[in-house]
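Researcher: Predict the fold of Phosphoenolpyruvate guanylyltransferase.
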Amino acid sequence: MADLQVAPWTLAIPVKRTAIAKSRLAPAYPQHRPELARAFAVDTTAAALASPLVRAVLVVTDDPLVAADVTAAGAYVVPDLPAAGLNEALLHGATVAAAEFPDNGVAALSADLPALRPAELTAVLAACTAPRSFVVDQPGTGTTLLAAAPGVPLDPRFGVGSALAHQASGAIPIELPGIESVRRDVDTAADLAHAVQLGVGPATADVMSLVLGAATGTEGLAC
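Model: C-alpha cells for Phosphoenolpyruvate guanylyltransferase follow.
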C-alpha cells in the first residue's frame, strides 16, 4: 500500500441538476429518472472516495440534493459558477482542485458510474503516469476519466467523440484489463442493465428496488 501514497489525486466530478439529467433514461424510467441520476452521482462519489489514491473529491454541481448527499459522503461541493456546460464546469473544478491541493494530480470523472469499484479506479489512477491520460467508455467513443499530472492543464474535451478528441489533444489512453466498472457509464436503459449486472452501489440499488416495486405494482405506481 505504501506505493499508493506516491501519486495522490483530486477528482472532479460534474453533476447536472437531476431535474434535467439523464434524459435518455426517461423513456424507460420516466418516474425515477431524477432519482437514478442522483443515485449514480452518490455511488460514483462514494466509490471514488474509497480509493487509497484519492485524497479529495470535488463535486461540481448546483443541485442542492446532490450537494447534500455527496457532502455527507465526504466530498467537497464546488458550485458550477460558469454554468456554461460540462467542459467549463470541469475547468472550474480543476482550477479549484489545483489551488486547494497543488501537489495532487487532477482527474475528471464521469458522475454516471454506479458500478464503479474502488480497486479498479485505483488501478487506473496508478497507470496514469503520462502528463495526461484518459479512459475510453464502454461503447468506445466517449471518455469516463481524464487525468492530468500536477501542474499540467486538464484540457477537457468531453462531448460527442471525446475519446478521439482527448487522444488528438495528446492524452494517452489507459488500456488495462479488468476495469469494466470504470468504463461503464450509464446513458440508456441497456447501459443501466449492464451496470446492474456488474453490481451497482447502494444508492442505485435502492432506486432500482423502487423501480422493481413500481413495475410489479407493489407501490401502486407505474414506473
